[in-house]
Design a protein that fits this description.
With 291 residues, the chain is an alpha+beta fold. The chain is 33% helix and 29% strand. The longest helix is centred in the middle third of the chain and has 16 residues, at 103-118.
Length: 291
């Protein structure tokens, strides 16, 4: 039996760090949005008892550090795997690696959802989310049916939000990989930040979203090491974006454009500006809509 399914990217429209936990993780309030930029996975049950992954990108590992592989092992362990199945995963990467877009977590979440379907839905959505928490905070959002949500805690306590699908999104990845743990480890929480957080995040939930609400507490940390992020933000604004922000721990920057024509014009302009930057990727995307 086999199944094919997408693994969408996400962006953080707002990200406020609210405190550091005793276990080393940070509490946060973040508004996340799924995009139609997706990886694609084909899952095929086998009788080998082994989990194998085949990917078109050399940047993706094939060992236990890979979220898709870890998710498969976790599912088999959780369900008992009395049939002693193995799994062959074929992964087509479209989402840049270590880019602040949640690609690895989304791949892993899609493996959990796909295996759950292949096994006849032994787990509810809530049970899958509980299962995925041990793999990473972003798993909750990707396992949920929400296309947009405000996440609290370490990012695993979700409240449905309206999809911000009125914009055209332009994503620029400068070709560097950022370690999320390093970014959080170098973030300094201040009392001033704590007071700002709840006011700003509550506004985006109760009053809808506008580009003026774009905010990421982690941005200064990553920009200090990779100043190109600030330059990319400025270029997006110069080329007509209504707002621009680094997503997650970076380094990908996204711009919001009011219409398709202005987004297309920006792609042309930025492609010229980055003509000598072969490592840069420009991705156009739309927000996923619906429930």
């Amino acid at each position: 039996m086999k199944i094919e399914l997408p693994a969408p990217a996400k962006i953080n429209l707002t990200l406020h760090v609210t405190g550091r936990r005793k276990d080393g993780y940070h509490n946060l309030v973040t508004r996340m949005q799924k995009l139609d930029c997706c990886d694609w996975l084909e899952l095929e049950l086998t009788d080998t008892g082994q989990v194998e992954i085949f990917c078109d990108s050399d940047e993706v590992g094939d060992d236990q550090s890979n979220y898709a592989v870890r998710a498969a092992h976790l599912f088999f362990q959780s369900c008992g795997n009395s049939r002693r199945h193995g799994l062959k995963i074929r992964l087509v990467k479209q989402i840049p690696v270590a880019a602040g877009l949640g690609g690895g977590s989304s791949d892993g979440a899609s493996v959990l959802k796909g295996l759950n379907e292949l096994y006849g839905f032994p787990f509810s959505e809530a049970e899958l989310i509980d299962c995925g928490r041990s793999l990473g905070a972003d798993f909750a959002f990707f396992l949920s049916g929400h296309v947009a949500a405000v996440a609290r805690g370490i990012g695993d306590i979700l409240e449905k939000a309206d999809s911000v699908d009125q914009y055209h999104y332009l994503l620029i990845n400068p070709g560097v990989q950022v370690n999320t743990r390093w970014v959080y480890g170098n973030y300094s929480l201040t009392k001033k930040t704590e007071k700002f957080i709840f006011r700003g995040s509550l506004k985006t939930v109760e009053q809808g979203f506008t580009p003026a609400a774009l905010h990421n507490d982690l941005e200064p940390v990553t920009i200090a090491r990779y100043p190109v992020i600030e330059r990319i933000k400025n270029m997006l604004m110069e080329d007509g974006a209504a707002g621009a922000l680094m997503s997650g721990s970076g380094p990908t920057v996204f711009g919001l454009f009011d219409d398709e024509r202005s987004a297309e014009a920006a792609v042309i302009s930025l492609t010229r500006k980055f003509a000598d930057k072969a490592e840069y990727r420009i991705i156009t995307a739309k927000a996923l809509g619906g429930a």
